[in-house]
Amino acid sequence: MTAIPETPPPPGRLEQTSTRIAFFIAGFGIAAWAPLVPYAKARAGLDDATLGLLLLSLGIGSILAMPIAGVLATRFGCRRVFTTGTLLICLSLPLLATVSSIPLLIATLFVFGAGLGTVDSTVNLQAVIVERASGRNMMSGFHGLFSVGGIVGAAGVSALLAIGLTPLWAMLVVIVLILAALFKAAPNLLPYGSESSGPAFAIPHGVVLFIGVLCFIVFLAEGAMLDWSAVFLTSDKHINEVYAGLGYAAFALTMTIGRLLGDTLVSRLGPRRIIVLGGLLAATGLALATVAPDWQVSLLGYALVGAGCSNIVPVLYTAVGKQTVMPESIAVPAITTLGYAGILVGPAAIGFIAHASSLNIAFGMIAVLLVGVAISGRILRV
Q: Where's the Major facilitator superfamily (MFS) profile domain (predicted)?
């Protein structure tokens, strides 16, 4: 094994381009799963509660992989770890499109989640290194490419299904595109990681815990769009399954636009107004999507959720940098863990709530929580 150099050359434009492609792969890979959820639910004969349990296995796999990926990237470099995570995603997708056995589906979702967690953890580590070397703010642009990947993944798979491809063949097309992007990015992904500046996880307290809970709620709303929007459109709005991915696509589109305009919006409106207006807009959109009789209006509601949520989390990360309760090197991983718990584990809770009552009630509860986020913007120092 080639030793990792102690003083590697600083990353430049090629590494920046590869980081953008890597973020696209991360968004594309996770979004390709969204249109498959109704198919997997019907193929395995699942009710909402059982589907929620299966989604929990995806979240567990991802959250367990994140800190491990950080350690491995420090030991073996971002390139190897990111490539491994991407290959896990590619191996999982055909099974997610075909298996009907519940135990096998649980195992596959766990591996898929591990791949997603590995990719996401590693690409953010690479982004921090590349951004620092550039001497300018690049993180919003990187995450914008994640959102672009989400749009292409959800809308693209929906289009493939709409023209008559089976879920398996649609996933094979997805895999070819992912591997092509990986082939382009891999040569300039970093062959090293960075030294750990603190523990992989710390229990947050004080204002850091408060910010972490807000991140959890916003990511919970995002997870609901990813894992439940397609199911809701098919079961409640009676939309054809091949178009079910349009819900997440509408959300991801406005999320992307919001992120690309985020720096300008924050400078003009101020961070507190971003949280207040964003939380209220997202809550209104989710309520509209839930109670509207027509699926077209529901798509508008999902779009409002994306626009509202787009810049709340970046503002919250800025607030973490200003607090003095916990060191930043510990506080940031702590709220990141809480946030990803929302997007990956939270949707499983939605399944249990939906089973006990309905998806309408579950989405309504999230809308109420988003109103709470908006209220917090009045009291949080940002």
A: 15-382
For residue 6, name the pLDDT band (cuts at 50, 70, 90): low
Q: Which two tokens stand for residue 346?
A: 């939270």
Number of domains observed in the structure of the chain:
2
48 & 120 share domain: yes
| Whether 366 contacts 220, CB under 8 Å | yes
CA atoms within 13 A on the CB side of 164: 0
Instruction: Please determine, for residue 380, whether its predicted confidence score (pLDDT) is greater than 50.
Output: yes
DSSP code, position 294: S
Quote the tokens at residue 233. Answer: 């459109």
Q: How far apart are CA 186 and CA 359, in angstroms?
A: 41
What confidence score (pLDDT) does residue 1 get?
A: 47
Last residue within a domain, chosen from 194, 216, 239: 194
| Domain span at 277 | 197-382
DSSP track, 181-223: HHHHHGGGS-S------S-S-----HHHHHHHHHHHHHHHHHH
Report how far residue 345's alpha carbon sits from residue 377's, in angstroms, rounded to the nearest whole number: 25
Q: Whose CA is closest to 137, among 319, 323, 9, 263?
A: 263
